[in-house]
Amino acid sequence: MARKPAPKAAQSFTPPPSPQREVRRAQVDLSFDNQSLLGALFGQFDANLVQVENRLGVFIAARGNELHIEGPEDSVARARDVLKAMYDKLAIGQDLDQGAIEALISMSDEPTLDGIVDAEPKGPPIMIRTRRKTIVPRSAMQAIYMRSLVRDDIIFALGPAGTGKTYLAVAQAVAQLINGSVQRLILSRPAVEAGEKLGFLPGDMKEKVDPYLRPLYDALYDCMPPEQVERRLASGEIEIAPIAFMRGRTLADAFVILDEAQNTTREQMKMFLTRFGQNSRMVVCGDPRQVDIPGGDGMSGLADAVGKLEGVEGFGTIRFTAADVVRHPIVGRIVEAYEGPTA
């Protein structure tokens, strides 16, 4: 009886290694007409150029009024756009600090960078002018937000700390108060402790609630001279109060801002929104992921209001992310770490 041939052993198949994607390198030269701006453009000991080099992985050499940039093709293109944007900011009299440069670097892969630095092709520059400074957007989402602050009646500004939600709202409110578009500026915030019990605070009502409202004062003093803030507070043109003080009022001819809105209940949020009056604008700022009221997200009036009103005519909703953080770059990394999949 013939023996059947033994089956051949299965041969394992090892796929060939995939070829590594070749990184194309490039170089480009930039020249600047106004040599008086070069010191501010380069920074002390070329610190601004080093910041761009380190963040984008390129090499920059200064030769008189020219810059030579070398590195990966995509990074060279971004570095070129950032340096041109830095020069343009200085040319129109805007400040250039580490934060502004970081913002331009973060926006350098956004198609809206040119519009943010200069102007919209069919509109005026995106900026807010106050008594103390001219404020321009530092991220693509900030540009969208600043347009919404001019256009929409009620705006929900959602996102993590450091994205400029409250600061830009206060700046826009101050600008409208100064030019007479509104007669009053009303800033409110729920008096909710952030995970700690402070006990009974001494003093009158103002002294009790001021610690909760301090971030709003800080933004005001950054946009107006201190003596003007104090005078307008005394006259009632500017009012800073806890949300409980809004009940029973109609807020006409006013720019109204509610900060830390994630710490309102549904009843408080409904009460606040229904205070809206003629010739008014409301901005509701908050981070839905940072709820400090007992009960957590299920009790937050902010999430409830956005769910009910998003898309309704007259409402605008702006969602910031960690990529829009305009404080120190490490703040953005902290936010990303806490907002990851396991957060």
Order of helices and strands: EHHEEHHHEEHEHEHHEEHEHEH
Assign the CATH architecture of the largest domain: 3-Layer(aba) Sandwich
Number of helices: 12
Span from first to last CA? 70 Å
Number of domains: 2
CATH superfamily of the largest domain: P-loop containing nucleotide triphosphate hydrolases
Describe this structure in words.
It is a single chain. The chain is an alpha/beta fold and 343 residues long. The chain folds into 2 domains: 25-117, Ribosomal Protein S8, Chain: A, domain 1; 128-194 and 201-338, 3-Layer(aba) Sandwich (Rossmann fold), CATH 3.40.50. Helices cover 38% and strands 16% of the residues. It has 12 helices and 11 strands. The chain has helices spanning 38-42, 47-56, 73-91, 98-107, 113-117, 140-151, 165-179, 205-223, 226-235, 266-273, 301-309, 329-338, and strands at 25-31, 59-63, 66-72, 128-129, 134-135, 154-158, 184-189, 238-242, 254-258, 281-286, 315-319. The strands form 3 sheets. The protein has a 6-stranded parallel beta sheet with strand order 8-7-9-10-6-11, with helices on both faces. α2 (47-56) runs antiparallel to α3 (73-91), α3 (73-91) packs across α4 and α10 crosses α11 (301-309). The protein is elongated. It starts with 24 loop residues before the first strand and ends in a 5-residue tail after the last helix. Residues 111-123 and 194-198 have low confidence and may be disordered.
